[in-house]
Amino acid sequence: MERRTFLRASVIGAGTVAFSGSLWREAALAAPAQLDPAPPYGALQPADANGIQLPAGFTGRVVARSGQTVPGTTHTWHDAPDGGACFADGTGWIYVSNAEVGSGGGGASALRFGSGATITSAYSILSGTNRNCAGGATPWNTWLSCEEVDTGYVWETSPWGGAATRRDAMGRFNHEAAAADPVRQVVYLTEDKTDGGFYCFVPTTWGNLSSGTLQVLKAGTGTSGSFTWGTVPDPDGSPKATRKQVPGMKVFNGGEGCHYADDTVWFTTKGDNRVWQVDLAAGTYALAYDDDLVSPGPAPLTGVDNITGSASGDLYVAEDGGNMEICMITPDDRISVFLRVNGQSSSELCGPAFNPAGNRLYFSSQRGTSGSSSGGITYEVTGPFRT
């Protein structure tokens, strides 16, 4: 029996044995997730006034709408809100959100909250860029905003505002999301192409992304196994695209969200509705979720997109399409629907992120009820999240 299988069996078979910290994470998500017969938060309740179905004990509110002034501020919220993250801000916090708008109309904005969750200010932190889809936070409290075009860059900017910096060394390709690994002092990057790669940027100096080495994951064609990293010779991707430069690169079908925690990085691929997990300590990769492997069906999660994690180790995956849901994968390989947004079938959910205390979840519906990028809605959900 493999060690991971043994650990998972031990957790299931010995109800009095408690795993914690890294050992619990090592046991977690060791096989593709299956339906949870008893979801942690119970069944969804009828939709609220905003069309959101939530479990009992949770409430939702709208915090911003595209094209409208953010309440209590003079800032107009951007169109097509996408990837996001939260940052601590004294007694409050900041939620940043990308604008997936092309032709130089993209960028990112921020909502600043006081200790009581009242919005105290809102402002732009990046502008003039293209199709800023997802991204990721850094340990030094900056936001990496990724351009989802073939000649796209990663832009580093501050949640508090100021000048943004283009990080050319991180590669020029169809960027999607980023996740920082403070243990190995690298940043992982996804690529939204049907034949995309999964990248690792190794900065020359941790905390400074101005120079470094871009690598891409190399492995076989299977859904699990060992892997290595290969150096991308020309991160600029011209004349040959970065994903075409390294023989043996593992191909992933439409890379989307990316999340790191406890020696593991998870990322999603929308082309095959999968969530992948990379065990960085063991040097292996495997499936955390595959909609074709859920039995009995139907699979709850389709159109996988952005992904984030909670303090309890639960993963939250937003749908681009599907039933407009955010689904939850627990550390014991169980998946359930956490919330559903009704009446917005021409939109997608994106940007899930928890505030520092872990009791508020932010996310956006990119096109809202109108189906247009100008109809985006950004929400906050409050409730008894597991910690």
TrEMBL record:
Pfam families: PhoX
UniProt-listed InterPro entries: PhoX (IPR008557), TAT_signal (IPR006311), WD40/YVTN_repeat-like_dom_sf (IPR015943)
PANTHER family: MEMBRANE PROTEIN (PTHR35399:SF4), SLR8030 PROTEIN (PTHR35399)
UniProt protein name: DUF839 domain-containing protein
Organism in which the protein naturally occurs: Actinomadura graeca
